[in-house]
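Lecture notes, unit on protein representations.

Consider one protein chain, 461 amino acids long.
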Amino acid sequence: MNKILICSIFMLIGLKVCAALFTNLSLYGDEAQYWIWSQNLDLGYFSKPPLLAWFLSFHVGIFGDSFFSLKIFPLLIYFFIFFAFYKLCLQLHISKNYSVLCSISFLLIPAASVSSFLISTDLLLLLFWILAITHLLKIRDGGAIIDFFLLGIFLGLGILAKYAAVYFLLCLLILLFSDKKILMTLKNHTAKWLLFVLVVLLVVLPNIYWNIINGWVTLSHTSDNANLQNININFYEPIKFLVAQIFMIGPILFFSFFYTSRSFCLDFENKFLLIFSLPIIIIVLIESFLVRSNANWAAPALISLFVLFFRLVVEKKHSLVIINFATNYIVAFFLFISILISANYKIFDRITGIDDFTKEILKTVGDKDIVVSDRIIFSSISFELKDRTNKVYMPYKAGETITNHFQMSSPLSQLQQTDFYLIGNQNDISYVLKENEVNLIKEFSVSFSSNKLKFYEVNFK
């Protein structure tokens, strides 16, 4: 059975490769932003730690930065996620056959199908989170000093991938207070645990240094995302978040778990999986209740939840696991077919028409510089212009609050003296206008922006 399922996965991978090769869809703005970062390596960036940019730079150095190459990057990371997930299942004492089935089933959950076509910080977060919890389990079973060292490496890299990896420390703390065996390792191997802490600090130290010399801008951005100063209690956001989690992990498996839940027992493995999922879900759920949340903010929790659900369902109702696999396979198949044919669906609006828009404005721009007010559009246009000499700038007046990385890396200077074109709001460049002439050339209604894009020509006298 596993051989048939693996073959079906390879068929789906082939479809995904064809979709990346022949689609007319463009990179999403965040993906283009990560590509820009990979061209300008640093120890940190305004909104994210640097690991994705480092990995992407290595990938681009080998395979180039074509659309197809960049879309293959997530697929390659999921190759490593698959094997890491398999090792985790074995460490949780799941049989080899079921570990294979669990791993390939995880590759097909809707969250993974979508994620496998997107460049995101979640990719590396999931990989190093899985590796970290696997080595934590090895430590509980009497792991050697190398396991403590690797746990520090993987958690440190997880934090450099996405700051959400710090949830691991909270889950670890809860585990220490709820499991005598792991607590004994703390008492009996204190020096090894100190090594773990030291390794984590050494790995994340470069990013800490970057934040120090840049005024902790990433911390400010993260706190702005939480936005707890503007509490707006609501019940819609928590419901939306929970429904999103159900669909991300797969509704068939989710409801199958509750169908078989009478047989659920709280052995160590299930307790471990709950500890490394529920606290994260609860934290993000509370934030969604108080302010807002994004569906992927609890991404690491899906790993443990999936294995938790799978362990019970596969033992009590194996057929439901196969039904879940088939259902998720159909969803992934139609997703990749839709990408292949560049279907005119609303979910693709943000990645449709960007290249056509860029070609249209280039008819007017020539080789002059372009100033773009919006971060997402800035990123997308910068990628489309990667083989041209045009420079792209972001409006930013010195002394004002920084709201995105491009205001740090590509600010439009107040001393600007050469003509340029503006995509955005005329007020955004008021600090350089003075007596200069600004002409509105055209307004564009495009699918990838909810607002009309105004296109100006700015001439210096």
